[in-house]
Design a protein that fits this description.
This protein has 202 residues and is α+β, with helices and mostly antiparallel strands. The chain has 7 helices and 8 strands, in the order H-H-H-E-E-E-H-H-E-H-E-H-E-E-E. It is globular, with a radius of gyration of 16 Å.
Length: 202
């Protein structure tokens, strides 16, 4: 099963996000706008206090480590940095990452009891890159949620990816793709679903 397009609710398309701007996009939207995953089964985030996340982009070596949310407010200055670290490294294009993606990996990290930061294989993906990957890799969706900043491909160096997958699926917060051959787990803020990489079609 491949990932499918799922628009931010209420409808928010690529053009509207770009019009809002990288900082304005986050600054004008309340936490409730992205409330769906927080209401999902097993997705129990603290109501108060800081939320911290750490990850390293495996292609660029760039990293983010720090607080991205306090209580019910996402921090635009943190997402300025997050958006850059999770940019399309092939084209250099920067795009706003759905804050719910960061909430998901935060919750997964807490559940997995991992100590080390996430290793990120893919965050935002430009249309040019997605088209290229569709030509060279099996299972890349034409309307990948990476195109709208709603997906991330990660692994944790100190736990098995099967355990990472299990933690993500228990959240019931979006899509979870298990790629044991490629050694990563895909997580997104689309509909709740899951799939496994076909070892004969990589």
């Amino acid at each position: 099963m491949q990932e499918t397009m799922h628009a931010l609710a209420p409808a928010l398309n690529r053009r509207e996000i770009l019009k809002a701007g990288l900082v304005g996009f986050l600054g004008v939207l309340p936490i409730g706008y992205f409330a769906a995953p927080a209401r999902a089964d097993g997705f129990n985030l603290p109501k108060d206090g800081p939320y911290s996340i750490s990850f390293v982009n495996q292609h660029t070596g760039e990293s983010f480590s720090g607080v991205y949310r306090v209580g019910g407010k996402y921090l635009p200055e943190a997402f300025d940095k997050i958006n850059v670290v999770l940019r399309d490294f092939r084209t250099g294009d920067v795009f706003p990452i759905d804050p719910r993606v960061i909430d998901i990996i935060y919750a997964v990290h807490q559940r997995s009891s991992a100590k080390k930061p996430f290793e990120v294989l893919s965050g935002y993906r430009s249309p040019q890159t997605n088209s290229m990957l569709r030509r060279t890799h099996a299972g890349v969706a034409v309307n990948s949620l990476h195109l709208t900043g709603q997906a991330i491909d990660v692994r944790l160096p100190d736990i098995r990816i099967s355990r990472l997958r299990d933690a993500a699926q228990k959240l019931q917060a979006g899509g979870v793709g298990y790629y044991p051959v490629s050694n990563f787990v895909h997580m997104d803020t689309g509909e709740v679903r899951h799939w496994t990489q076909d070892p004969n079609n990589t």
